[in-house]
Amino acid sequence: MAKNCKILKKMCSQAKAFTLIEILVAAVVFTLFLIGVFSMFQMGNQMFVGGSWKLEKQKHAQRFLTVLKERLERATNLSKINPLAAPDSQISTSPASVYTLNSGSSFNSGGRGLTPNASSTSNILLFSACMPDLTSISATKPGMCIAHSVTLIPDAVDNLYSLRLIASKWDTWSTNANAANGIGSAIGAFPPNAGAFGDFSGTSEQYQLGEDPFSITIDSVKRIVVEWAVASGTGSESAGKVLGIRLDLMHPKFPQTQITQEIRSKIAYDVAIVGKAPGGL
């Protein structure tokens, strides 16, 4: 028994503990391992969040631009048909121009932490969709005129933009636009005075001009570019004009995550496009 105790004491005296350096090296290796695992997790999470954001924003942007394209291609002048008048004066029209930025103009938000070049709400597109009444024989016809605006709204938190499309009857558009955006129109001829031209008191459903009143918004917009010209390959204004809008969207927390969507809408040949400098609408 005494012999066994001596052997155990000898073994214990020969055993060595971990040195401080060995403990520090092990701690550093373990820390590096944890950092690697965390970095991989963070990268995977960012890719997942970025991918989900791209998918969601792409759908939102496509819907916004599709609605805008459908309504923009209905842009028309005011018109009235009076079958009781002389043959050469049965159809009368009044201008309802499309007002937008000068071709090639753009708004750049800069993104998070940067100052955008538009710090206040501003219209970038104003247009009207008008239809006469063809169902009754009368000098005064109800018809319909829907005024539209696309408005840029800066986001003070992320320094990005939102775009809002508003559509409403010509006589209520100013009230609805001011209520939603705090801004009306700087153009005296917009919305066109349909009341002075005829009795435009019908409903939008009667004339298939879309829901009224109507509003749709897209956010996280980094850049907006507006371009317009005569339809390519025609060489004549009678063939119509093409108005294009491009949106660059950016994730507010991951600036490298971006998508681009655009539309090109054909405008009727007899509808004038009037360009203005940014802030002039």
Could you explain how this protein is built, in words?
It is a single chain. With 281 residues, this protein is an alpha+beta fold. The chain has one domain (44-276). The chain has four helices and eleven strands. The chain has helices at residues 2-14, 20-72, 173-181, 194-197, and strands at 78-81, 91-94, 98-101, 105-108, 122-131, 144-154, 161-169, 214-230, 241-250, 258-267, 273-276. The strands form two sheets. Strands 3, 4, 5, 6, 7, 8, 9, 10 and 11 form a nine-stranded mixed sheet that branches. A hairpin with a 6-residue loop joins strand 6 and strand 7. The protein is elongated, with a radius of gyration of 32 Å. Residues 234-238 have low confidence and may be disordered.
The major sheet is characterized as: 9 strands, mixed
Give the count of helical stretches.
4
The domain count comes to: 1
What is the rounded Rg? 32 Å
The amount of beta strand, in percent, is 25-35%
The secondary-structure element order is HHEEEEEEEHHEEEE
Structural class: alpha+beta
Question: How many E strands?
Answer: 11
Low-confidence segments: 234-238
Task: Give the helix level as a range of percent.
Answer: 25-40%
Give the distance, in angstroms, between the N- and C-terminal Cα atoms.
104 Å
